[in-house]
Amino acid sequence: MNSTARVVITEISGILGSTSNVYTLVCIARFRHLRSKVTNILIGNMCVCGVLLAITGTVVLMNYTVNVTLMDSVVGAASITTLYMSLLIILLIGVDRMIAVADPIGYKIRMTQKKAGLALVIMWVICTGFCMGVVTPTLYETNMCRFFPETVYKSFVLPLTVIITTAVVAIYVGILVEFLRQRKRAKLQFSGQFLPAIRRSRYLTKMTLFILIVFLATWLPYMTVTLRGPPAEGSSEVAFRTYRWIDHITHGLLHASSFTNCLVYAFTNPEYRKAYRDLLGCKKSQVNPSSSF
């Protein structure tokens, strides 16, 4: 795969990713039954990450030169920021859905938009500050070959990434177990006005499980290759060629994820399907907005 083909693929993925994520953001902002749910606010932030990832990836490749400028390093750091923010948001969505599944009646009190918004602001500030302060100079000094200094990567970034990823998987496995355990007794445990809300909450939980699967399948390979970096100087040409091919493939998978999530929303959640259709037809949504699960 030559550089021209990679640029074309990245541009196409960037256009598809930006368009689909912006469309989802417009749906969440326009329809009250979507924006009133904490989970959808978090998904909206995932869409923001998808848009930023599509833009930064395209900018980096289109402006790539042998001599890396400071602006190239800033854009690269922004791309790493969106990758780690995606992981943190997936973790926050997992906590949100765990509470919704374990305590559906008390969920509205435990998870509010104010709490979710505060958590998001803190995560964005810390993640952006760290990446801009550490990744930008490293990219500039190593000519885009390394994202983190070796000591920072081994002592902090790698262990933290492993811990967060393990926590995400553990939370979602717990959600799945609790989800299946409660499925049979839901109708007996809840009745009347709670049943529609419980049903919508389960749709949302099922959707986030699929999001996790897609995210890990596209995020982990790229981050593994990116953080390990290219072969050491003096390695064989075969090693460098293999690295370049793996980098191209994982890079393509990563950018594909920026629009595949929107397909997951549409196929696994009827509220999103209806919102997508209604926005295309310029109609107001008639979905019952009573649930905030």
- The CATH class is Mainly Alpha
Mean pLDDT: 77
Order of helices and strands: HHHHHHHHHHH
Q: What's the number of helices?
A: 11
What gross morphology would you assign? Answer: globular
Radius of gyration: 21 Å
Number of distinct beta strands: 0
| Multimeric state | single chain
Structural class: mainly alpha
Task: Let me know the largest β-sheet.
Answer: none
Structural domain count: 1
CATH topology: Rhopdopsin 7-helix transmembrane proteins
Q: Tell me the span between the first and last alpha carbons.
A: 46 Å
Query: Unreliable stretches, pLDDT < 50, 5 or more residues?
Result: 285-293
CATH architecture field: Up-down Bundle
Question: Helical amount among residues, as a percent range?
Answer: over 70%
Subcellular location: Cell membrane
Organism: Capitella teleta
GO molecular function, one term: G protein-coupled receptor activity
Main location: membrane
